[in-house]
Design brief:
The protein has 448 residues and is mostly beta strands. It contains 2 helices and 34 strands. The chain is globular and about 75 Å long.
């Protein structure tokens, strides 16, 4: 390898071009496991930014198939930010279509068909009730002037010209309807203005009648000053959730009217709920939870024994982990690291083998052109501390003249509660490989 050329910072030539970045990048999320198959969503700039539900069959050939045909776009506008726009049960997919916001049913080998009327109704956060042949979901009603009306509804899986049966109403917002394993109980989150879901939410649970309506319901946790996140029923019918009642989003469970903390620690097991369907934990079995938490800006994947409450870290090559789903013996999640872009990853819990199913970026970059971030902190107003990832210039073909300092690009993420990570980002490497330093800031209020 030849000696690096001496050239001023900011003038270096790089193989990471803007055309390469745009042409080879997609978005990933919306993970799910149904039976033997796994699913996720892809945001495809080359297809006009449409969202596609993708299926990966658990077969010897591991076939990957697009479920969402052109021109459908599986995206909901409920709460405007959307999320969890599809569900799959027994091979049949249900999804919101962006153009008309109607709910569609897609049977195996068939074209999607609408099952809700063509009026100003939006749907999100679906749970399939096989017992009653219905979907439980959030509905947002825009049929009248003024503010939209949010409710929880059931929609008949074969088609529902009424647009759904309202089962809970009265509050400003709803999310996370979750049906118990035997279909007899439903849990959900709700909150009101002026709260955002990371300020204060309430977790409720109710009995489900034969027609899908709700009987007796009670508040389990939460309030104006407590943020509850991601309620889930265990396979044996116990309600679990995440709460920030101690100042940290930690795991809890509710049974026989009592709330029990599972592993109290100064770490975040939750995230700001901007979108539907966010998931930081899942049940591998009744006795085992696979979860992710962040501590000092770094994410960890772990296994929690629900009997002993022992938390055991699962070593991974990743620094960021999310969208966790689990089934016996396996985990599906979204992950990345400073050298790996965000990817859909499958983990075999028995062999501890990781398999990357899809990457957000197909760019292959020689490590000699990649700058690895350094976590830094610096004082701000009021005696507080802010955090950032610092990327030094890096290009194996060039070096700067002695004593020269690089130009610095300071980046600030969208807010107010989001956070940047150190996951490989070709947009940052575009600059660092040209001789620029980059500081990606997590300002006050960032989560993590």
């Amino acid at each position: 390898m030849p000696e690096p050329k001496i050239a001023p910072y900011g003038s270096w030539k790089s193989p990471i071009t803007s055309d390469l970045i745009v042409a080879e990048t997609i978005g990933l999320g919306g993970t799910a496991i149904e039976g033997d198959d796994v699913y996720w969503m892809e945001l495809r700039p080359k297809e006009g930014g449409r969202l596609v539900v993708v299926q990966r069959r658990r077969t010897p050939e591991s076939k990957t198939t697009d479920l969402t045909p052109m021109p459908f776009n599986a995206r909901t506008r409920v709460h405007e930010y959307g999320g969890r726009a599809y569900a799959v049960a027994d091979g049949t997919a249900y999804f919101s279509n962006f153009a008309d916001q109607r709910l569609y049913r897609q049977d195996p080998g068939a074209e999607p068909r609408p099952i809700t009327p063509e009026i100003a109704l939006r749907y999100a956060d679906y749970v399939v009730d096989r017992r009653r042949n219905r979907l439980f979901c959030v509905r947002e009603d825009h049929t009248a002037p003024g503010e939209a009306v949010n409710t929880l509804v059931t929609v008949k899986c074969d088609g529902d010209e009424s647009g759904g049966q309202v089962i809970i109403s009265g509050n400003n917002f709803y999310s996370s309807p979750r049906l118990g394993p035997d279909g007899s109980r439903l849990a959900w989150l709700t909150w009101n203005h002026p709260n955002m879901p990371w300020d204060g939410t309430e977790l409720w649970a109710g009995e489900v009648n034969a027609d899908g309506s709700l009987g007796h319901a009670e508040r389990v946790a939460g309030g104006p000053a407590e943020s509850v996140f991601q309620p889930e029923w265990s396979p044996d019918g116990v309600l679990y959730f995440v709460s920030d009642r101690t100042g940290w989003w930690n795991l809890y469970r509710w049974q026989k009217g009592n709330i029990e903390p599972l592993c109290p620690m100064e770490a975040e097991f939750g995230e700001p709920q901007w979108n539907f369907g966010m998931s930081t934990y899942a049940f591998e079995s009744p006795g085992r939870i696979i979860c992710t938490y962040t501590q000092k800006g770094t994410y960890h994947l772990a296994s929690l024994d629900t009997a002993t409450l022992k938390l055991e870290e699962i070593p991974t090559p990743y620094t960021d982990v999310g969208s966790v789903r689990a089934a016996p013996g396996r985990v599906l999640f979204l992950a990345g690291s400073p050298t790996e872009p965000w990817s859909i990853v499958h983990l075999d819990l028995r062999t501890r083998q990781f398999e990357v199913l899809r990457r957000t970026s197909a760019i292959k970059v020689n490590p000699g052109y990649v700058s690895t971030p350094e976590e830094i902190e610096f004082p701000t107003e009021g005696g507080l501390t802010a955090h950032a990832f610092f990327y030094a210039p890096g290009n194996r073909d060039f070096t700067a003249p002695a004593g020269e300092k690089p130009p610095l690009i300071v980046m600030s993420h969208g807010g107010p509660t989001a956070a940047v990570s150190g996951v490989f980002n070709p947009n940052i490497q575009y600059w660092t490989s040209r001789g620029f330093a980059v500081m990606d800031v997590n300002y006050g209020g960032s989560t993590g």
